């Protein structure tokens, strides 16, 4: 959502490790909901840690007019952020608060709170309430959060994102859950 609100060229570059990642479709939907003119260019790295391939993809996206890069791979995210920095573009961090890489580049980061996830699972196991099958952890149950916004993010955008996140946490709407992505089309 924040990438869709911050892009000036209406082109956001999404660089997932794999096209099968189920976060891709909801991300594209959120970017396009912010402005019908927004486009999301998606190209997979086909690896969790191939930094040189990710940088090549990022450079190609910048040449296509992308002004917000969003890496989805914790082995190459910093490489993409550095490419955004050198190209004077913005980026969204992945897994942890990555503003330390380049404060003038990072809009925000999606942060995974793995400690909280493990504690919740351990408590459910201890209580005998751990359900069978797959579990989903996200913003609603403390598995994910957003890092503080960068100084380039205007207050009205910060407020809109915070309000939407609060609405989601309160159950006022749900996010689509797809078993897998449609791929990088």
From TrEMBL:
Compartments it resides in: Cell membrane
Keywords in alphabetical order: Cell membrane, Lipoprotein, Membrane, Signal
Keyword rRNA-binding: no
One Pfam family, short name: Bmp
GO cellular component: plasma membrane
Signal peptide location: none
Stretches assigned to the ABC transporter substrate-binding protein PnrA-like domain: 1-161
PANTHER family registered for this protein in UniProt: ABC TRANSPORTER GUANOSINE-BINDING PROTEIN NUPN (PTHR34296:SF2), TRANSCRIPTIONAL ACTIVATOR PROTEIN MED (PTHR34296)
Protein name: ABC transporter substrate-binding protein PnrA-like domain-containing protein
Lineage of the organism: Bacteria, Bacillati, Bacillota, Bacilli, Bacillales
